[in-house]
Design brief:
Number of helices: 16
Radius of gyration: 23 Å
Number of domains: 2
Strand content: 25-35%
Largest sheet: 9 strands, mixed
Structural class: alpha/beta
CATH class of the largest domain: Alpha Beta
Distance between the termini: 54 Å
CATH topology of the largest domain: Rossmann fold
CATH superfamily of the largest domain: ANL, N-terminal domain
Length: about 550
């Protein structure tokens, strides 16, 4: 690795935002080559130069249309996007928020924002007014890019309500052809077609370029501050850790996670450009249609939550010897321990459980260079990063024991935008970031997640291993999806409740039958669910995470 050059002070690159990362640490990461000293926009320039005619973007829309962009077209459109946004007054350090479905215009906007030295933030298109307003307000967004409408939401009307609340929001740009009833500050993207592209100075790679808003499963979203350096470290390490060839040559990735969420952005958009692959964006998720897209487009790779993989397993892709998939990276929520082996055999692909957060992208992943047993964990830690598992006293717990997971490294967030209080709360001395996850490390240094700290159930003074219980329930032949949560109990503090989605036409498990099944799998009796609730589906974030706080509200 080649050391990156010294850059401007962090206080300047972060526009005065509070961070515990000191100048000496930043320079050490540059000197050691973890921070490469290049921008994300340079990845697209390089791919367009090397593979100008290769398909970069494919858009499979729910209306049946198929849109494609070569790398040369992608590069030119991103350059034009930068010019349009510049003409609207966007410059270095300004925030542009994109609230679009997974359309090919989305990555073009991301790289255009990047080229300007501006800050990109995304809002999943399914978000409601409260969540959207929180992100726009916190980011101080100057421009919002939207569809006129999407499904049942009139986004133009939504944007007007939002502009009344957000004084910084000066422009709303629509990806639409209908120019009727537009007001001051509103325009169609197509109306800016004549804006001339111009050369812009390349931003500093250490500059704040992305606010990744946490999915809000526990409260108001916080804006995790990332630079070109932190993001490029993470995507580069994921590529090298697993091995670029495993993803396909060239990689063809299905992007089903919302681009407005960190998974769709970092892994669907940035990672694909890093490997000069093809990103196939789908603007809805339907398992049967997804299986058709995988075959028709020759999909080799997928990043997403276990929910997507479980959906694929219920399609005719399972057992198909011609299934084109080669690598499936699964993260974002606990991975049932038998799922990687089962899915790998059924789909003929390497399934790589991984662990990460918006605050660090991915920091551990399984890899085919390690023994198969690693796939029953959440992988090994990236080079250049460190993790610890600590107890209540802040000291490391013994190997194999469960505690709080803390980590540090070049891919870690600088802190939370305009939230110095949240930043200070999240970091321990020595730049150790509190993940909020409970985990263990085995003798190989492999990481195993055991649930969120806030998801822990304490029954009669004993901590219940929620993830272990859920993992076994996932394997039940009649269960499609499951979550285990605690319900209040005067005597024991909490009791264990399993919330199940049952396969169509199958009987609903009872407390007794589920308990018998779990005991047969080796589960201790005092970990067994004492209550079962069935639902047609579990409440989810757009990225596929189960919203346990909503389950607790329902159960209470």
């Amino acid at each position: 690795m080649t050391p990156a050059p010294t850059q401007a002070p962090l206080s300047e690159l972060l526009d005065g935002q509070h961070t515990p990362v000191d100048e000496a640490t930043a320079q050490r990461w540059r000197d050691e080559g973890w921070w490469e000293g290049r921008t994300l926009r340079s990845l697209l320039t390089e791919a367009a130069t090397t593979h100008p005619d290769r398909a970069a973007l494919v858009g499979r829309r729910s209306d049946g249309t198929r849109v494609t962009r070569t790398y040369a077209e992608f590069d030119a459109n991103a350059h034009h996007a930068a010019a349009v946004l510049s003409s609207l007054g966007v410059g270095t350090g300004d925030a542009v928020v994109v609230m679009l479905p997974n359309w090919v215009e989305y990555p073009e906007l991301v790289f255009g924002i990047n080229e300007l030295g501006a800050i990109y933030a995304g809002i999943p298109v399914a978000y409601g007014e409260l969540q959207a307003a929180a992100i726009l307000r916190r980011s101080k967004a100057k421009v919002l890019v939207i569809p006129r409408r999407w499904r049942s939401t009139e986004h133009l009307e939504l944007s007007r309500r939002l502009r009344e609340q957000i004084p910084t929001l000066r422009h709303v740009v629509l990806l639409d052809d209908d120019a009727s009833d537009l007001r001051e500050g509103e325009s169609l993207w197509s109306s800016h077609a004549d804006v001339s592209a111009r050369e812009l100075p390349e931003p500093d790679p250490g500059r704040l370029c992305y606010l990744g808003f946490t999915s809000g499963t526990t409260g108001e979203p916080k804006g995790a501050m990332h630079s070109h350096d932190t993001l490029l470290y993470s995507i580069r390490q994921q590529a090298e850790h697993v091995g670029p060839a495993v993803y396909g040559d060239p990689m063809v990735q299905l992007v089903a996670s919302p681009a407005g969420h960190h998974t769709g952005f970092a892994w669907g958009i940035l990672f694909t450009v890093l490997l000069a692959g093809t990103a196939v964006h789908v603007d809805r998720w339907d398992p049967a249609w997804g299986a058709d897209v995988i075959r028709e487009e020759g999909i080799t790779t997928f990043f997403g939550a276990p929910t997507f993989l479980q959906d694929m397993m219920r399609t005719d892709l399972a057992g198909d010897p011609d299934c084109p998939l080669t690598c499936l990276v699964i993260a974002g929520s606990p991975v049932p321990r038998n799922l990687p082996a089962q899915a790998g055999e059924a789909l003929g692909a390497y399934v790589a459980p991984a662990w990460g957060l918006t605050e660090c992208s991915i920091m551990s992943s399984c890899t085919p260079t390690e023994p198969d047993a690693i796939q029953r964990t959440d992988g090994s830690i990236f080079a250049g990063s460190q993790v610890r598992v600590i107890g209540l006293d802040g000291e490391d717990v013994p190997t194999g024991e469960v505690g709080e997971l803390v980590m540090r490294g070049p891919g870690l967030v600088y802190g939370y935008y305009d939230r110095p209080d949240a930043t200070d709360e999240a970091f321990l001395p020595g730049l150790w970031f509190r993940s909020g996850d409970r985990a263990s490390l085995d003798e190989h240094g492999w990481l195993s997640l055991r649930g969120r700290s806030k998801d822990i159930i304490i029954r009669g003074g004993e901590n219940i291993p929620v993830t272990d219980v859920e993992s076994l329930i996932f394997d039940h032949p009649d269960v499609v999806n499951a979550a285990v949560v605690g319900t209040p109990d005067e005597r024991l503090g909490e009791r264990i409740c399993a919330v199940l989605v049952v396969k169509d036409g199958r009987p609903e498990p009872t407390v007794a039958s589920l308990g018998e099944y779990l005991v047969g799998k080796g589960m201790s009796k005092h970990y067994l669910p004492e209550r079962i609730i069935t639902m047609p589906e579990l409440p989810m974030t757009p990225s596929g995470k189960i919203q346990k706080f909503k389950l607790r509200e329902i159960l209470s």
